[in-house]
Amino acid sequence: MIRALALCLALAAPAAAQQANSAPGGVLRVLDKQTGHVEDLELQAGQTAQSGLVEVSLGACRYPAGNPAGDAYALLTVHYRGQVEPVFRGWMIASAPALNAMDHPRYDVWVLRCITS
């Protein structure tokens, strides 16, 4: 029993929450897979922008404390053609957008980086 507890504690240590800083905004990339058009959107937290038929809202952008060039992650909401229900709502990680990807037949949206200054 003690060994199992020690093993659990040893495995949980690397998974401890990493400190993150909030950025005032972020840079997102939108790809229209039908036309091949790529557009980078620079949004402030709470701002919404339109690219083609999608409307992208940035809720927050965060990055590892002490490493502003580190892996950004952003809270996004994406609507298609003014539909009430979003096609994507959640956190997206810049280095691994496929972990929580937007599944849409025409558009891809992903996080590039946070704006730190």
- Point out poorly predicted stretches: 3-16
Mean pLDDT: 85
Q: How many separate helices?
A: 1
Q: DSSP strand (E) fraction?
A: over 45%
The helix/strand series, from N terminus to C terminus, equals HEEEEEEEE
First CA to last CA: what distance?
A: 50 Å
Overall structural domain count:
1
The helical percent reads under 10%
For the secondary structure, the number of strands is 8
Q: SS-based structural class?
A: mainly beta
Largest sheet: 5 strands, antiparallel
Shape assignment: globular
Radius of gyration: 17 Å
Describe this structure in words.
The protein is mainly beta and 117 residues long. The protein has one domain. The chain is 9% helix and 49% strand. The protein has 1 helix and 8 strands, in the order αββββββββ. It has one helix spanning 2-12, and strands at residues 20-23, 25-32, 38-44, 48-51, 54-64, 73-80, 88-93, 107-115. The strands form 2 sheets. Strands 1, 4, 5, 6 and 7 form a 5-stranded antiparallel beta sheet that branches. Strands 3-2-8 form a 3-stranded antiparallel beta sheet, with no helix packed on it. The longest helix has 11 residues, at 2-12. It is globular and about 40 Å long. The model is unreliable at 3-16 (pLDDT under 50).
